[in-house]
Each structure stands twice: as structure tokens, then as C-alpha cells.
Specification:
There is one protein chain. The protein has 29 helices and 42 strands. The chain has a six-stranded mixed β-sheet, with helices on one face. It has a four-stranded antiparallel β-sheet with strand order 7-6-18-20. The relative contact order is 0.08. Bound molecules: zinc ion (2 copies). One zinc ion binds near residues 165 and 365.
């Protein structure tokens, strides 16, 4: 199919066909270009393709620009691993220019791989005109944004305690911590802080981060809590140890101001620090001792307390998380290694009360999986307070699916702190900040501005990137002195967040052909930089779609930048979806051996089945992806395949020529069953359209599955004889049903549906569209609801009849005398069909007699409805105290219960099997006589002979002769019937054989 589309330029023709039509604007979230295509990424890409194909079939003019995320920690960490570099120093020794080139090569490799995988998935994009976030174009747009932020007074240098990755040597901002918490075992220490002026008394504190103890400067108590002194001289909160005996009790406020001996006063760093007790309302009485150890250099809250209480700030570890020299025997060791030594040292000096271990949630670096620490650092921030109300307002204009994800965004917007945008790394957006010694902060807004203000170094400026950009000093706008760029690079979410501006040409005067192929992306992309009119046309996006975690990442950074620049949300609607796990519900990890590479999935399950699996998933639940579910999908597709094969086989025999025009409006047919399938098909089209309108692909597939069941297990099953007899109406109707169904499922399964379109439509109808995707989205009349309801009820009766047979243990081929149907309102005209389907001689619509009725509550439905009344109703039902109201409704203990709120069991008289469901009851007479038994044997024989025909590889039209063993001679009473069913010209009985046999004539 890929070749066919390529050869016939199907995608280009589709775009051409829609050009100038109504627009539907899609903006792609960039995929990180550091790997091959994984099944996780394939999920999102499949959804994007489904909706773009669907909108294209509806005639919408669209953008198909794919995006790659090309710089930042993601790329760096991967390249470091490949080069065997383990620290920032090693990167610098390797050389930043060389490192930048390696990073770019990695991006090119990955972009090529991702493109190949995505094409194989069937994704139609404007490949080769991708936007790459490391282009100078993208970087300039972020510069412009940062300059704007600076002009508003929203850019500042913060000095604070932040989450820090010691391996990556950089701070990590709050949104990057999402989902990065894992259970971890840490030491748990209880430590003595002896009070200076009260010999024999000491505070007891609890910590799970022993490495922070050398930086201790204070101990916090809750002012209004009660603290008690135990006989052994230890102070703790009474609420924490209510059963202990205390010699004295005081309020926390009375302890405030006391001085104590620090845990590591002997280290040079702690010299001159006065340790004292401070008040803090947020001290928890849920864990620990109620006295909290405070190290402002190692914790965010601690740092805030240092400002309020004017505490000294000790920063014990460097960028790599190793102790500084003034920490004596600790110097040079990491925070992890220090824990044990610190505990041992405290024990030696009699300061350790006890030590143990604790398992708690702990954050890890999202890129390299190193446990994070807190560290004081100077970082650049964007302040959010002024923007917060506007962000909330903008989010209120967005239509989120599932809805709760919009609420999550609201929660995030209400609670997030300022955005830490600086990273102490190399291969990233160079922050255009030039902080001058005179105190002035210069922020450059474009390359042109940089060139204008540069004092040199422009000739070597290969890209707007380190190391080259660092050698372009500028003149300070305030003092005129030379000033150099700060060394930091930007948070990657700036790169992705600017996309709705940088790719659409916001405030760009002139369309620049190839404008995106600048800087690092030169030679990789051919994408133009459009002009502002284009931005006006395509902004905001009508639709974006990514995984839930993007709420705080891409969705957020886009929203933030968009609200800051133009005051509105950059998208109108969002489809989010939850996580992908393996089929047993575990995370997928390369090291656990359960990660499925997309390449392997293409080979073992095929792109269509992968897409089906992605689309069958409700977006509010995790997708359990794997080969087991794929197998199940293939089984479902087999039913469709068999129906198509049936159409092709009989169509070929009869030389059937479908008419393309019948797809519009449906074939005009008279028989109720034919009219029903046309209506049933039209309903499918409507259900599918509604499902996609709601962005719920799983509903489309549910509707499709129900339809295929109706098509195969009702229409074809009920029409077999007409196909054998070459009834053209049956073929027309079946063709209509199959083709329309393929059209609505084609966005999900483009390969199979296009393949079948080529055979069933293009090859059969001269002048028809050459691709299913060029044929538009089907439009159908309002289906005949009455007819659909009627047949739906008939099918329910038949299902109940089958259940009755199963529970009576009578096989489906054995004819039975009577079926009584009670509660059917629409199926009355279908007695013959029901009789035939259930192999009963007679169907009566009326009351099922002499039955025992058992009604049980459906608890999940009734519980919420009845509340505490449930018990009463339950008891009444159990005691048989209820009244039947018709339509499956009951009244018990004064409450009316609907059909779907109860389970009903009816037990039949002797010899009758009774089954009920939601207001419908059938009773099957199971009494057999000789004649019925004989008919049952004849049907067994017919079945057997037809299987033999199939096994012998006979054509559907081949005639045969049949030879029966002597003991089956009595079946000859029905010889004509048998001949007719198995296309036999003759049946004879041969005394010698023990089994029947057939021979082709
Ligand atoms: Zn890291
Ligand atoms: Zn200056």
C-alpha cells in the first residue's frame, strides 16, 4: 500500500483536493530525536494520523508539519553515554564544538529513523519539511519571547534551593519532576542535639537525608504544639509519643531561641554558626519527632526559613553533588556515600539515638535516573504571578478530552511556582542574557540585534549555539562596556513551547523559503518560514494531542508562551491519553525485556493491528499493549475478513458488477432484511462520525465491532440461500455494507481498507476514486430507527433462545418443537426467522407460564441510587415481595427498579428451559420425539458433508455424489433436503462403509 500511495501520489492528491477548503489546524508536538520509533511514540503518531485522515476525508485543508525536538538534556545524555563521558568536565575536555557536532549527528540519525518508522505506521506527514527545534529560526523566536518577558519585568535571577541532578550537574524545574518519583530505601536517623544552657537535655530530630546534617543551622518546632522532656533528658513532641512519661511539658514557643550544639561543629564549614531553635507552623506531627532539622542549603522550605529567620546558609556540595573542601573528612565524597559515614561518626560521638531504613517516594532525574538532591543555586526564572489569572482564563477556553485533564491543567496553573528556565549544560538553547558588571541585564531578541551589538566573534558563529555564541561579546546598553553571555542554556520546554509561533511565522514580514533550514537544521529540513498572514490563518491550532504527562510540559509551555505573547490559548481542543504499559500492566523497560520495539511490532502484528490497539483504548485508562491483545484483534478482523471473502466468492461466481453511485444514498431494495442492512450500515456511519467528533476512537471501534457482528452473524447468515441462488440484491446490499464499513474504519486501518477498496471498488467500478482516502467521508440518510430496533429485538430473542439451548445442554442443530417469547414488542413479525434461527417448529408470542421468578439487585447500579434503602429493597427481593411492572421493571419496598438495575432469573416448568434478560423472556420446550431426532441427525449429516466438501477443496459450485453407511439408511427419508444442502446429485447406501463419503461428479 505504501508503494501504491507513493506511486500514485495519493497523499499529495488528497491535499490538492482539499486545498482552499475549510481549514482544520493541527500542530504537531515535537518528538525527541534521540532514538528509533518506539511503540509509545507510535501510539501518539497513530492518533494524530487517524484524526488528520478523517478531517482530510471530510475535505479539510490541513497542515502536516512534523516536528523534532533536537536539543537539551535528552540529546546530551544519550551522546555522553555513546562517547563514554561521565561528567561535565569530561564533556569540556572532549570539546564543546565537537560535542555539538556529535549531538547534531545523533539528531539526524534519529530523525531519519523516526521518519522511516512513522511512514511504516502509515502516518501521512509532510516529511522532509519538518520543523527542528534546534534551528536558528526556532532559537530566535525564543529569544524574542525572552526579550518580551524581560521587558515586562518577568525575567529575573533567583537565588534559591532547587531540585538538582548531581550527575547532569544542573537544576531541574518543577514540571520536570512529574512522574519522576519512585519508591526508594533511605536511611532513617534519630539524632541528639544537646542544648547549650541546659546540661543533660537535648532535642531529638529525625532525618532521612544524613548528608544534610553537616549543613544544619537550626531546629524547628511547632509553636503551639506541646513538647515534653523525658526522664533521659530528651525533648520530643508529646503528640508523637503520647504513651511516654514526661517530667516537664511546654509549648513549642517556649523552646524557641534556645541554642544547641550542632551535629558537626567540628568541621571547618560549621565554625561560627550559632545553632538555635526556630518556630515553624508547618512542622508536621505526622512523622518524626516533631522537631525538624533545618539545613537551608539543602532544602527548599529550609531555604525559605533562612530568609524569615535570618539563618546562615551552608552549601555543602558542589555541582556534582560532592562535599566541598571545608567539610573536612567528608570532602570529595558524594551525598550517597556520606550517609553511612555520617551515621557512624554520630554513633561514635554518642549523638545517634537510633538508625534504620525507610522506604519513601523520592524524585529521580528524568533523563539519567540519578536520585535528585536539593542545592542552592542561581537560576533564571520567569515569574508567573502576573500571568497566572490569564493562564487560567485561557485554559477555560480549551476543550479537553478527557475532561479531567483540563482540571489537572487548572490545578497545575494554580499551584505552579516560577519557571526555572536555565540549565548549566551545553547542547541547548543559548539563553540570550548578558549580565553586565554594571548591574544591567541585556537580553538580545534576535540574530540581527546580536550582530548589531556584537563586539567581535561573528565570523566564527557557526550556529546560535555553544561554544560559538559564547565568543560573541556585546556592548552593554547601559554602560557601553563589553559583556559576555551567561553560560547557561535553556529548558527544553522553551524549545517546544514556542512552536505555535516559530513554525507559523508569527510577526514575520516576509515568507522565507527554506527558512527553517537554519543553523543546526541546515540541510536536514526544507521547511519554509511562513509570514504573519499564515500565522493569522492557522493560529490557534484546532487540535493537539499528546500523552497526559504533557499537561505540565508541552501543553503548559505552549500555553504559557502563548498567553505571554498574544494573550490567548494556542489550541482550541486537546486529546490527551494515559500511559502505555505492557499487556500485564507493568511499565515497559529495556532492561526488563518487556519493551516492544516498534520495528518488531510492525513485523509481528502489523501496522493496522497496532493502530487498532492504540485506537481501541479509552484515553482515560492506561493502554496495556502487547501481542496478546494483538492476537485478539486479529481474531476480530477474521470475522470481517470472512464476510469480505463471502462477498468476493459469490460476487465472482455471479459476475456481480457493483455500482459506485449506490454508495451515495444506498441501494434501493425492497426486502426488509436488505433494507435493514442498509439502515444498519447508515447507523454505523453515523456512530463512527459521532465517535470521531468526540475524539473517542474506541467508540468508533466498538461500533465497528458490533456492526461486523450484525453483518456476519445476521445479514450473511440469514441470506446464505439467496447468495447460493445468485440473488443480486443480496450482493448489492452486502457490497454497500462492506464498503461503507471500510470507509469509516479506514482512518484507523488505512492499509487493509485501502487494499480492499482497490479490489472491491476501484477494480470493480469504472471511474470510481482511486483511493479510499480520495472518496471523501460517507454521508448517509437518517437510518430507519424503527426497523433497526425491530431487528435488534429479534437478535436478542435469538440470543436468549441460544442461551436456553446451552443451559438445557441441547446442541444447536437439534430441532425442537416450541419457543414462547414474552415481553417482545417489535419482533412479532419475525416469527419465521426466529424459528429458523433457533430450529424450532413454532414460535409463540405470549406469556411464559408457570414459572418461578427470582429477582436480584444489580448492586453497582442500585447502591448509588438507593443509598441506605438498599438493604430494605434487597431483603424484599430476596423474600419474593415484589411486583412486576412490565418492560422488565419491578417494584419492591416502595421503590421502582428499572430493567438494568436488576438481574432476573425465571425457572421453567419441567421440560421447559427459561431465560430472561432486561424485560425479555423466552421459554424453550425441550421435549423430543422421533421425527425431531431424525431431523437432528439429518442436520448433523449435512454439516459433516459440507465440512468434507471444504476439506476436499471443492469449489462452491461443484456437484457431488454421497455414499452413506447402511445404518444411516433411515436418513434417506430426507434425501431431497440433504441433496439440496450439499449440492449432491445422488445419495446411495453402501452396506460395506462405516462412514459417509463423497465424490465429485
Ligand atoms: Zn541527571
Ligand atoms: Zn553595563
Amino acid at each position: 500500500m505504501l508503494e501504491l500511495w507513493e506511486r500514485e501520489s495519493t497523499f499529495e492528491r488528497l491535499r490538492e483536493q482539499n486545498r482552499g477548503g475549510p481549514t482544520w489546524s493541527f500542530v504537531d508536538g515535537p518528538v525527541t530525536a534521540n532514538k528509533t520509533l518506539g511503540v509509545h511514540t507510535a501510539w501518539g503518531r497513530a492518533l494524530k494520523d487517524v484524526f488528520q485522515r478523517w478531517k482530510a476525508m471530510q475535505g479539510y485543508d490541513q497542515r502536516y508539519q512534523n516536528g523534532f525536538d533536537c536539543q537539551g538534556l535528552w540529546i546530551e545524555v544519550g551522546v555522553e553515554r555513546e562517547l563514554g563521558l561521565n561528567s561535565k568536565r569530561e564533556i569540556e575536555d572532549y570539546g564543546l564544538a565537537e560535542f555539538a557536532h556529535r549531538c547534531r549527528e545523533k539528531v539526524i540519525w534519529s530523525a531519519t529513523e523516526l521518519t522511516r518508522g512513522s511512514r511504516r505506521l502509515g502516518q501521512w506527514m509532510d516529511w522532509g519539511n519538518d520543523y527542528l527545534t534546534f534551528s536558528d529560526t526556532n532559537i530566535e523566536y525564543i529569544w524574542r519571547f525572552l526579550k518580551h518577558m524581560h521587558e515586562q519585568g518577568w525575567l529575573y535571577l533567583g537565588h534559591r534551593s532547587t531540585e538538582w541532578c548531581p550527575r547532569c550537574g544542573t537544576s531541574i524545574s518543577a514540571h520536570e519532576l512529574v512522574g519522576q518519583y519512585e519508591d526508594r530505601t533511605d536511611p532513617s536517623l534519630f539524632v541528639r542535639f544537646p542544648l547549650r544552657d541546659r546540661p543533660g537535655e537535648c532535642l531529638i530530630v529525625w532525618t532521612t537525608t544524613p548528608w544534610t546534617l553537616p549543613a544544619n543551622v537550626a531546629a524547628a518546632v511547632k509553636p503551639d504544639a506541646v513538647y515534653g522532656l523525658q526522664e533521659d533528658g530528651e525533648w520530643v513532641a508529646v503528640d508523637r509519643y503520647p504513651d511516654e512519661t514526661y517530667v516537664r511539658r511546654v509549648r513549642g514557643s517556649e523552646l524557641v531561641g534556645l541554642e544547641y550544639e550542632g551535629p558537626f561543629d567540628n568541621l571547618p564549614a560549621a565554625q561560627g554558626v550559632t545553632h538555635r531553635v526556630i518556630p515553624w507552623d508547618d512542622v508536621t506531627l505526622e512523622e518524626g519527632t516533631g522537631i525538624v532539622h533545618i539545613a537551608p542549603g539543602c532544602g527548599a522550605e529550609d531555604f525559605e526559613l533562612s530568609r524569615v529567620n535570618d539563618l546562615p546558609v551552608l552549601t555543602p556540595v558542589d555541582e556534582a553533588g560532592r562535599f566541598y573542601d571545608d567539610y573536612g573528612w567528608l570532602h570529595g565524597i558524594s551525598t550517597g556515600e556520606a550517609a553511612e559515614q555520617i551515621a557512624a561518626n554520630l554513633a561514635e560521638r554518642g549523638k545517634l539515638v537510633s538508625s534504620g531504613e525507610i522506604v519513601h517516594r523520592f524524585p529521580f532525574c528524568w533523563r539519567c535516573h540519578t536520585p535528585l538532591i536539593f542545592r542552592i543555586s542561581d537560576d533564571w526564572f520567569l515569574s508567573v504571578d502576573d500571568l497566572r489569572p490569564k493562564l487560567l482564563e485561557a485554559n477555560a477556553t480549551v476543550d479537553w478530552t478527557p475532561e479531567y485533564m483540563g482540571k489537572r491543567m487548572d490545578d497545575w496553573l494554580r499551584n505552579m511556582g516560577d519557571w526555572n528556565i536555565s540549565r548549566r549544560r551545553y547542547y541547548g538553547l543559548p539563553l540570550p542574557i548578558y549580565e553586565c558588571g554594571c548591574g544591567h541585564v541585556n537580553v538580545i531578541g534576535s540574530r540581527a540585534e546580536l550582530e548589531e551589538r556584537a563586539l567581535g566573534g561573528l565570523d566564527q558563529l557557526e550556529e546560535l549555539r555553544r561554544p560559538w555564541i559564547d565568543d560573541v561579546p556585546i556592548r552593554c546598553a547601559e554602560c557601553g562596556g563589553e559583556v559576555r553571555r551567561i553560560p547557561e542554556v535553556g529548558d527544553v520546554w522553551l524549545d517546544a513551547g514556542i512552536v505555535p509561533f516559530s513554525t507559523l511565522g508569527w510577526q514575520n514580514d516576509q515568507w522565507v523559503p527554506g527558512g527553517y533550514a537554519t543553523g543546526a537544521s541546515a540541510g536536514i529540513s526544507g521547511a519554509d518560514l511562513p509570514d504573519h498572514a499564515y500565522w493569522e490563518q492557522w493560529f490557534p491550532a484546532d487540535w493537539v494531542s499528546e500523552m497526559r504527562e504533557q499537561i505540565r510540559l508541552w501543553f503548559y509551555s505552549q500555553l504559557f508562551m502563548s498567553v505571554a505573547l498574544v494573550g490567548e490559548a494556542p489550541f482550541r481542543s486537546v486529546l490527551g491519553y494515559e500511559k502505555m504499559l505492557d499487556e500485564h500492566g507493568r511499565e515497559m523497560h529495556g532492561s526488563w525485556g518487556n519493551l516492544i520495539p516498534a520495528e518488531e511490532a510492525f513485523g509481528r502484528m502489523g501496522a493496522d493491528v497496532m493502530r487498532w490497539q492504540f485506537c481501541a483504548q479509552p484515553p482515560d485508562r492506561n493502554l496495556l499493549f502487547g501481542y496478546g491483545p494483538a492476537h485478539e484483534i486479529k481474531r476480530k478482523l477474521l470475522t470481517l475478513w470472512n464476510s469480505v471473502k463471502f462477498l468476493v466468492d459469490y460476487g465472482t461466481i455471479e459476475g456481480f458488477r457493483p455500482s459506485y453511485d449506490e454508495l451515495a444514498g444506498g441501494p434501493a431494495v425492497e426486502r426488509p432484511l436488505d433494507r435493514w442492512l442498509v439502515a444498519r450500515t447508515d447507523r454505523l456511519v453515523r456512530e463512527a462520525t459521532a465517535a470521531l467528533d468526540e475524539q473517542l476512537t474506541f467508540r468508533l471501534l466498538e461500533a465497528f465491532e458490533r456492526y461486523v457482528d450484525d453483518l456476519s452473524n445476521w445479514y450473511i447468515r440469514r441470506s446464505r440461500r439467496r447468495f447460493w441462488e445468485g440473488d443480486e440484491d443480496a450482493l448489492r446490499v452486502l457490497w454497500y455494507g462492506v464498503v461503507q464499513a471500510l470507509r469509516v474504519v479506514s482512518p484507523v486501518m488505512p492499509f487493509l481498507s485501502e487494499h480492499l477498496w482497490q479490489n472491491l471498488v476501484r477494480g470493480a467500478c469504472p471511474g470510481s476514486p482511486e483511493s479510499i482516502f480520495l472518496a471523501g467521508w460517507p454521508e448517509v440518510r437518517e437510518p430507519d430507527a424503527a426497523l433497526l430496533d425491530e431487528v435488534a429485538e429479534v437478535r436478542r430473542v435469538v440470543e436468549l433462545g441460544r442461551k436456553a439451548r446451552d443451559s438445557a445442554g441441547i446442541k444447536h442443530r437439534q430441532p425442537l418443537p416450541t419457543l414462547v417469547v414474552q415481553g417482545a414488542r417489535l419482533a412479532g413479525g419475525h416469527a419465521d426467522e426466529i424459528a429458523e434461527e433457533l430450529r424450532v417448529k413454532e414460535v409463540d408470542f405470549g406469556d411464559v407460564e408457570a414459572q418461578e421468578l427470582v429477582v436480584k439487585p444489580h448492586l453497582p447500579a442500585l447502591g448509588p441510587k438507593l443509598g441506605r434503602e438498599l438493604g430494605t429493597v434487597r431483603a424484599a427481593l430476596a423474600a419474593g415481595e415484589f411486583e412486576e411492572l412490565g418492560d422488565g421493571r419491578f417494584r419492591a419496598a416502595g421503590h421502582e427498579l428499572a430493567a438494568d438495575e436488576v438481574f432476573v432469573e425465571r425457572r421453567g416448568r419441567e421440560g421447559w428451559e427459561v431465560v430472561s434478560d432486561a424485560g425479555l423472556t423466552v421459554a424453550l420446550d425441550t421435549a423430543l420425539n422421533d421425527e425431531l431426532r431424525l431431523e437432528g441427525q439429518v442436520l448433523d449429516l449435512i454439516h459433516r458433508l459440507n465440512s468434507m466438501r471444504k476439506d476436499a477443496g471443492l469449489e462452491l459450485t461443484d456437484r457431488i455424489t454421497v455414499t452413506l453407511p447402511a445404518d444411516q439408511a433411515d436418513l434417506l427419508a430426507h434425501a431431497d433436503w440433504i441433496k439440496n444442502e450439499v449440492l449432491a446429485v445422488e445419495i446411495e447406501v453402501d452396506g460395506g462403509g462405516r462412514e459417509p463419503s463423497i465424490a465429485k461428479v
